[in-house]
Amino acid sequence: MKKKYQMIYLISLTTLLILCTLYFLKNFNLSWVETNVNEAKITINFLFPMNQEEFKTHIKLTSQREDSRQFNYTLKWLNNHVVEIKLQECNEIKGQKIKLIIYNAPTQIRGLTKSEMVTVQFKGDIEILSPTDDLLISSTHPFVIQFNTPVSINQIYKYLQCDAKFYIKPYECLDSNGKKYKDDTKYILFPKEPLENERCYVLLLKSGMASKSGTLLKQDQVIMLQVDKKPTILKTYPAEGDKWIGLYPRFTLESKDPMTQAVACINGQTIEGILIDSYHAYFLLDDLLKPETAYCIDFQIQVKSGELSEVKSINFSTTTLNDHRFWIDIRCGNTQKINCYEGDKLIRTIPFGLKLEKSIPLFGTYYLKDKAEVYENNKQQLGANYWMIISENFGIHGDIRNAYWQRLDNIKSTKNIAITDEEAAWLYEKMNEQNMIIIRK
User: Fold this and answer.
1) CB atoms within 10 A of CB 152
2) Cα dihedral 16, 19, 23, 25 sign
C-alpha cells in the first residue's frame, strides 16, 4: 500500500513539473519597452526561434477606447528569436495606455507556442481638442470638454477656475459589446446653479495640470463660455382663454427663435412636439379631451445651445356636447372606421378604405365645410355619390365609380374616405355644416 502511495506521489509530482515547464516555455520571455513623444519600441526575446511568417496573425492591441485602428505598428526581426515592434498613436488622442498581446505565436519547434503581454504607456502633451472657439451654452444644461490625452477628474477639479461652479463627470461610451466605459479624455460639466443669460464666463485651466501619462499642461488654457438668451414662444393654439376647442385639437406653437425641440404637458401627459420647421411645431394627444372641461397646457421649447424657454401656460375649455349633437370620430389606424355619435352615445360604426400614406390630412379636429350630391374627379374620370368635404381636396363619399358609373375598388381608386352608398346616404343626411369631425390614428 505504501509503494502505491509513493507511486501516485511521483506521478503527481512529475505531472506538476511537466506543466510548470510547459508554462515556463510558453510564457517566459525577455521584453523591454522604450517610449518617447512619437512612438514606443518594444523588444521581445522569445528564447526560441519563431515562425516569422505567421507571427503577425497572433498580435492584438487593446486599449480603453476599443479601437485598435488608432495605432500603427511595424515589425523588425533582429534575429530568429528577437523581434522589435514599433508602435505609434495615429489619431488625435495621445498619451494612452495600451496592451500588446501576443497569443500562441508558433515557434519553429513543432507544438511549442509563445505568449506575451506588454503594457505600453505613451506620452503626450496636454491640449484641449474642443471647444476650440467661444462656446455658446445653456444656463442650465451641461457641456463637454475634450482633451487630446487622458486626464484625471481630480486634476480638473484642482486646476479649473471660473466664476461659475460646476459638477464634473466623465463621458460614458459604449464598447463593441455594448458595455459602458468612461472616456477619460472627455468630461461633462454641469452648472451647480443656473448661469446668467447673455453673460460671458471665463473658464481657466491652469498650467501644471497633469495628464495620466505624467505630462504637465505648459500654459494656462482659456475657454470663453457665452450663455445663450432665453428663447421666446410667440404664439400658440389654443391661445389663452380660448373656448369651444374641439375634443381632439391639433396644438401648435410658433417660436421667435430657431428651435430644436418642443414639448407640451397636459393632464400629466408629456407630448413631444413634431417640428414643421425651425419655428413651428404641433402636438397630438393620445386620446380625446372631455367636453365642457377647463384645461391647462404648458408649452416649452429648446434651442441648439440647450437653452429652454420659460414655460408658457395656456388655459382653455372644450366644446359642449348636448345629447343631440351629431359628430364623427374617424379612426385611421389598423382598423379604419368612422364612429358616429349623438352626444356621448355611439350610434353607428362605418368601416372604410383609405390610402393612408398619400391622402390622410393632418390629424386634429375639423368641421364640415360643405357637401354635394356628387363627387367628380375629371382628371381621373372618377366619381361618387354623397360628397362630404372635410378640407381642401379631402372628404367622404360613397362607392367610387368610373365614367360609366360602374363601381370600382374603393381603396385602390380614391384618395378620400370611401364607404358604401348605403352608409354614405345615411351619413349625408346626418351631416350638416359645422358638424365636428375628429381625425386620428
Assistant:
1) 14
2) positive
pLDDT of 320: 92
CB burial of 411-429 (b: ≥16 within 10 Å; e: otherwise) equals eebbebbbbebebbebbbe
Question: What is the reported pLDDT for 180?
Answer: 86
Q: Helix, strand or coil for residue 280?
A: strand
pLDDT at 16: 58
Enumerate residue ranges in the chain where pLDDT < 70. 1-27, 66-69, 355-361, 410-414
Residue ranges in 100-225 assigned as alpha helix (H): 153-159
Residue 370 parent element (H or E): strand 370-377
Residue 199 to residue 185: CA distance in whole angstroms:
28
- Characterize 173-188 residue by residue with b for buried, 16 or more Cβ atoms within 10 angstroms of its Cβ, and e for exposed: eeeeeeeeeeebbbbe
**What are the tens digits of pLDDT across the range 297-336?**
999 999 999 999 999 999 999 999 887 899 999 998 888 9
